[in-house]
Write a structure and sequence with these properties.
The complex is a heterotrimer of chains A (892), B (97) and C (124).
Chain A: H1 4-30, H2 40-47, H3 53-66, H4 72-82, H5 88-97, H6 103-110, H7 115-148, H8 157-176, H9 187-216, H10 219-228, H11 238-254, H12 256-264, H13 269-288, H14 290-300, H15 310-317, H16 321-362, H17 370-399, H18 405-417, H19 419-428, H20 434-456, H21 465-470, E1 478-479, E2 482-483, H22 491-513, H23 518-528, H24 530-533, H25 542-558, H26 560-573, H27 585-599, H28 601-612, H29 619-694, H30 700-731, E3 740-743, H31 744-756, E4 764-767, E5 774-778, H32 780-797, E6 804-812, E7 815-822, H33 829-832, H34 853-864, E8 867-872, E9 877-883, E10 888-891
Parallel strand pairs in A: 4-6
Antiparallel strand pairs in A: 1-2, 3-5, 5-10, 6-7, 7-9, 8-9
Helix pairs in contact in A: 1-9, 2-9, 2-13, 3-14, 3-16, 4-11, 4-13, 6-7, 6-19, 7-8, 7-16, 7-17, 7-18, 7-20, 8-16, 8-17, 9-13, 9-14, 9-16, 10-14, 11-18, 11-22, 12-16, 14-15, 15-16, 16-17, 18-20, 18-22, 19-20, 20-22, 25-26, 25-28, 25-29, 27-28, 28-29, 29-30, 30-34, 31-32, 32-34
Chain B: H1 13-37, H2 57-84, H3 87-90
Chain C: E1 4-8, H1 12-24, E2 28-32, H2 38-45, E3 49-53, H3 61-70, E4 79-83, H4 88-97, E5 101-104, H5 109-123
Parallel strand pairs in C: 1-2, 1-3, 3-4, 4-5
Classes of the chains: A mainly alpha (892), B mainly alpha (97), C alpha/beta (124).
Chain lengths: 892, 97, 124
């Protein structure tokens, strides 16, 4: 027989081992080696704190009493995990995005950061969970007592409970408040509970394997024994099967300790996906041998022995001390890991929502020194841990450890399940309000206390038996197990059904009739639409919190986009990449100015000073003002935008119309011009050909003269058509340029010869051949066309007595230009502006040209990448041909 | 097709498969609820003497655990199939239609 | 009985053709080719009929016509207007301004001669 002392020795060794693991995990974290500490496996194992001593010992007892019903407690969480996509995914995302530290924090944060709500949730959680902690202490002392039985009186049970509580408090204080982590993560604790998860699984599996193969002799005989046992048939209260599955699912989501490991300690959302199948597997393995152990226990153990301890007593009865010790360690692990995490979660709530606000408000000057607050927070956290575990111990002492373990577990579940409507309602329904949440919580909690918690102490302890029979104050419809006079429902199902139903009803109805504060509406939108706009959550410290508030405020007034731009610019100006800028004085003043532009200076100042410094107006009041201003602004902005859009469209239409009209006028003018240019020569041709045809006896000289007029006009028509086609080709960019290399001198020579050909009175042309020794790479035919045109123009229109044309080449860096200067009458200024236009003809000139020559010249030069301009001289006109710089290659 | 900005009407085969797998993943808990609530229809001795003979506990337990194992296996295979598709890595929890 | 015709036109070949045609019919033809100075010539020459080109350098035929009609002395002088632009709008404007006859180039010789004869007869 194992002595109690040996067992205590083993326990202490095990605890030391856990301390060491936690310590090294913290050390590794400090060194930045967190990858393996935060693996999906560790995450899944940490979820196993769902399986407490209630599971380890209580499940077997439960099965021994009610058969398969125990399994509902694991079916609910399995369904929740397998259906992670529906609720958990959003819960984890919201929790992480909002940096929620606890269930209370999450609910309060959702409902406009209401501290009242946080306090209510915290108190409910403490009341709901403390019995559960007491239950763990009880299970450890009970299991110790089993070993001590032969040496009766050797174990002081209450003393043992005290030392267990003390040890757990020490561990939690050491690793739960070792450093005040901004995100409330505790690597040491998590790794320790992961190890404990493995220990309890192995212990339970070991006992199960021993029972099936060691005692029963295999699977088939085991099955036979199961069917032959007192619980061997399917005896199920159907309402309990349904209600308990739903209850366990609800509790899995709402238990503060589950929130701690599932959301707060979650490192990576993808771990949740792995846990979605891994955790149900763990639960299945934990429940696999429960029925066999219960059946064998009922079979072997003497009548009246506590079925809750079969896991221990069967190996002991079979002389398997080692196995029993392992089993003891498994139960010990289950109890301690639950107590540690539950205490951690509760102490966070108590400290953040009760102790800290009280402390802060008791100090007049407020929390100005951050180091100051830090110490206070750690101190309050430690005090809270001691308080919670102390409460658990006190509860254990006074409850006397009487009730069956499973009953306490279920009562606790119903209590925490009351959080669920507010939690889930808050993340899926934007219309949920603070008062709705409060009403639902209080309603559910009251019914739970009256129907579940108080009756659990038995008739005559807290509630007198008359209350059970005649109802509260003699009112028949308020009986703890028969609310509204509906009798015959199983008490647990009764409590679950009424508390949750009325909780939800109160939540919804009150939410519908109350109006949320602006902050609530903002938070509601952020919770419900978390997938639309949550990136990874940002950090959290005092300065940032102020920045966040400023950001929230600015967003409401300036609109999300503008506010974000403003803050981003400021952040990058401060050299902070991403995240929020520090609320420096300059930035705050700048912000105030920005806001003043929208809501007026006084309001902006009041708002800013409320957030940054103390002010007498409440934030809520200001938020309401901001909300209304934002609505009005938005409305007027919309109107303005609409009218802007209309006038823009009208303007565009007008412009398009003007363009069309201008185009049409241009086209008309062009057609008139063409018509004129074509009809004029045709008039002469027709007239003279009719004269030639109709006049008899015309002299040969006259005939020849008229025929040559006809010929000349026909030539003019041909030229005109050629020019028109040429221009059209050039204008449409269809012309293909043939680049070739040749000397400028040669080109000028050829052009002059062509232009002067057949002329009766040739123009005198002066050149400087030295300058012309330049090689050109360009379309020589087209450039020649320009030269010919300019020379011909000079020849035709130069009205000097001795017409003269000076052709000179000049270079200015890479730019080469050829100028053609004549000594005729300068073109008047009015005409200069239009000479390059189509059909432009200057002065009283003869009509042999259509006025397209210079237009063609300019078009050609544009195509060649150069230009042609007219320079007015005192005596004469100069046309300058600018050649593109790359066309001039080098001097010859 | 999918390179254009707007959501295409027809998805590529791969993402179509993936979305249907997400559908399966979402339906899995509903299947679980259905299978695990089936025992509600089993006869129990409390139904009275005319009721059919009650189900033996070994059969009941086997049923519950087989369903359990099947759900775990389905969840596992869906998870590993979805993980094998690269798009899942970006953000698996994104809204997938 | 040679009547006096003034031809205001800037195209040399057309001047020659019309001069030839009208001279052959026994008219006395004077020519003028600048729009800007056309009014003085008309006032000085006091012709029985004016053949007016629509598009003239200096001043357009339409402007000259308007000016003529504004002058009581030339209110009823027959004016034959020639145009090469061939736009309906030009004809409308000219008719509004009080043109006696409007012709589009190219014309047939007989048409011009007939028109001039008719207009002079009508005016008498």
């Amino acid at each position: 027989m194992a002595s109690v002392n040996l067992l205590i020795g083993v326990s202490l060794t095990y605890v030391t081992f856990l301390f060491a693991i936690a310590f090294f995990a913290e050390r590794a974290t400090a060194r930045g080696q967190v990858t393996w500490l935060r693996s999906p496996l560790v995450y899944t194992l940490s979820l196993s704190i769902y399986c407490t001593a209630w599971t380890f010992y209580g499940a077997v007892g439960y099965a021994a009493r009610s058969g398969m019903e125990f399994v509902t407690i694991y079916l609910g969480p399995s369904l929740v995990m397998i259906g992670w996509w529906w609720a958990l995914r959003k819960l984890v995302r919201v929790g992480r995005a909002q940096r929620a530290t606890s269930v209370a924090d999450l609910i309060s944060s959702r409902f406009g950061k209401s501290n009242l709500l946080a306090i209510v949730v915290t108190i409910m959680a403490v009341i709901g969970v403390t019995p559960y902690i007491a239950l763990q202490l009880q299970s450890v002392t009970l299991s110790l007592a089993i070993f001590a039985e032969p040496e009766a009186g050797a174990l002081n049970q209450t003393g043992a409970a005290f030392w267990v509580a003390f040890g757990l408090a020490l561990f939690t204080v050491l690793f739960g408040t070792r450093n005040l982590n901004v995100n409330e993560r505790h690597n040491g604790v998590v790794i320790a509970i992961a190890v404990e998860a493995v220990v309890k699984l192995i212990a339970l599996l070991a006992v199960g394997v021993f029972v099936v193969w060691g005692v029963a002799g295999g699977v088939a005989p085991m099955m036979e024994r199961i069917d032959a046992s007192p619980i061997g048939t399917w005896e199920m209260d159907r309402s309990r099967w349904l209600a308990l599955t739903a209850l366990s699912a609800a509790a899995f989501l709402a238990l503060p300790r589950m929130f701690q490991v599932m959301v707060v300690e979650n490192e990576d959302e993808r771990h949740l996906q792995i846990a979605s199948w891994a955790f149900p597997l763990y639960l299945m393995l934990m429940s696999l041998f429960v029925v066999p152990i219960a059946v064998i226990g009922l079979d072997l153990m003497p009548a009246g022995s506590n079925p809750d301890l079969f896991v221990l007593t069967i190996p002991l009865a079979q002389g398997q001390v080692g196995l029993a010790t392992l089993s003891f360690l498994g139960g010990f692990s289950s109890a301690t890991s639950m107590v540690i995490v539950a205490t951690l979660a509760l102490s966070t709530m108590v400290s953040n929502h009760i102790v800290m606000p009280v402390w802060l408000s008791s100090r007049v000057e407020g929390a100005q020194v951050s180091g100051d607050v830090r110490n206070v927070v750690i101190l309050s956290r430690r005090a809270s841990i001691l308080l919670i575990i102390g409460l658990g111990y006190v509860y254990y002492r006074f409850s006397g450890g009487g009730a069956a373990l499973a009953a306490i577990g279920l009562i606790s579940f119903v209590g925490v399940a009351q959080f669920l409507p507010a939690m889930l309602g808050g993340i899926i329904w934007r219309g949920a309000t603070r008062w709705g949440a409060l009403a639902g919580l209080l309603m559910g909690f009251t019914i739970w206390v009256f129907c579940s918690l108080l009756p659990s102490f038995g008739p005559g302890v807290v509630l007198s038996s008359s209350v059970f029979e005649q109802g509260l104050f003699g009112l028949g419809w308020v009986r703890p197990h028969a609310l509204f006079g509906i009798e015959g429902i199983d008490p647990t199902v009764h409590a679950v059904a009424w508390s949750i139903t009325l909780n939800i009803a109160a939540f919804i109805i009150v939410s519908l009739v109350t109006f949320p504060s602006p902050l609530e509406r903002l938070q509601g939108a952020q919770f419900v639409n978390v997938f639309d706009h949550s990136g990874r959550a940002q950090g959290w410290d005092a300065a940032r919190a102020t920045s966040e508030d400023l950001m929230v405020m600015t967003q409401r007034i300036l609109g999300a986009e503008e506010a974000q731009t403003l803050f981003r610019l400021e952040a990058s100006r401060q050299g902070l990449d991403g995240g929020l800028p520090e609320p420096t004085q300059g930035f705050v003043q700048h912000l105030e100015r920005e806001l003043a532009a929208s809501v007026g200076a006084a309001t902006a100042h009041a708002m800013i000073s409320q957030l940054v410094g103390g002010a007498s107006v409440s934030v809520q009041d200001l938020m309401a003002v901001a909300d209304e201003s934002a609505q009005i602004l938005e409305y007027s902005n919309q109107l303005e935008a609409k009218s802007h859009e209309l006038s823009r469209t009208a303007h565009q239409l007008r412009e398009a119309n003007q363009k069309l009209t201008a185009l049409s006028v241009q086209k008309d003018a062009f057609l008139s011009q063409i018509s004129h240019e074509l009809r004029t020569p045709m008039t002469s041709i027709r007239s003279f050909s009719e004269i030639l045809r109709d006049t008899e006896g015309m002299g040969q000289v006259e005939k020849t003269r008229y025929a040559s007029i006809i010929h000349g006009e026909a030539m003019r028509l041909t030229r005109l058509l050629d020019d028109l086609l040429d221009l059209s080709v050039l204008e449409n960019g269809q012309v293909s340029l043939r680049h070739e290399t040749g000397g400028l001198g040669d080109l000028l020579e050829k052009s002059i010869r062509t232009a002067q050909a057949g002329s009766t009175e040739p123009l005198t042309i002066r050149r400087r051949h030295v300058d012309e020794a330049v090689m050109l790479s360009t379309d020589h035919d087209r450039l020649g066309q320009v030269f010919i045109n300019l020379i011909t123009n000079a020849r035709k229109y130069c009205d000097a007595e001795t017409p003269e044309l000076v052709i000179s080449v000049s270079r200015d860096g890479p730019n080469l230009s050829v100028s053609f200067a004549d000594n005729g009458t300068p073109i008047p200024d009015d005409d200069r502006r239009v000479i390059f236009e189509k059909f432009a003809r200057v002065g009283n000139q003869d009509g042999s040209g259509a006025g397209l020559g210079l237009a063609i010249c300019r078009e050609i030069m544009t195509r060649l990448g150069g230009d042609v301009t007219h320079v007015r001289e005192a005596h004469g006109n100069t046309f300058v041909v600018h050649l593109p710089s790359q066309s001039a290659l080098a001097a010859q | 097709m999918s390179t254009q900005g707007a959501t295409p009407v027809f998805l590529e085969r791969r993402s179509y498969r993936r979305r249907r797998m997400m559908d399966a993943l979402r339906l899995l808990p509903i299947l679980g609820v259905f299978l695990w609530m089936l025992p509600l229809f089993w006869p129990t001795p409390a139904d009275g003497p005319t009721a059919p003979e009650a189900v033996p506990l070994s059969t009941a337990a086997t049923y519950v655990f087989v369903v359990w194992l099947a759900l775990i296996a389905s969840a596992f295979s869906l998870w590993s199939l979805l993980r094998a598709r690269p798009e899942m890595d970006e953000d698996a929890s994104q809204e997938l239609r | 009985m040679g009547k006096h015709v003034l031809l205001v036109e800037d195209e040399v070949n057309i001047i020659e053709a019309i001069s030839f045609l009208l001279s052959r019919e026994g008219w006395q033809v004077d020519t003028h080719s600048d729009g800007a100075t056309a009014m003085e010539t008309i006032r000085a020459a006091r012709p029985d009929l004016v053949v007016l080109d629509h598009m003239l350098p200096g001043k357009s035929g339409l402007d000259i016509l308007t000016e003529l009609r504004a002058d009581p002395e030339f209110q009823s002088i027959p004016v034959l207007m020639l145009t090469a632009r061939g736009q309906a709008r030009d004809r409308e404007q000219a008719e509004k301004a009080g043109v006696s006859r409007f012709m589009t180039k190219p014309f047939s010789n007989i048409e011009v001669v007939t028109a001039v004869r008719d207009l002079v007869q009508l005016a008498q």
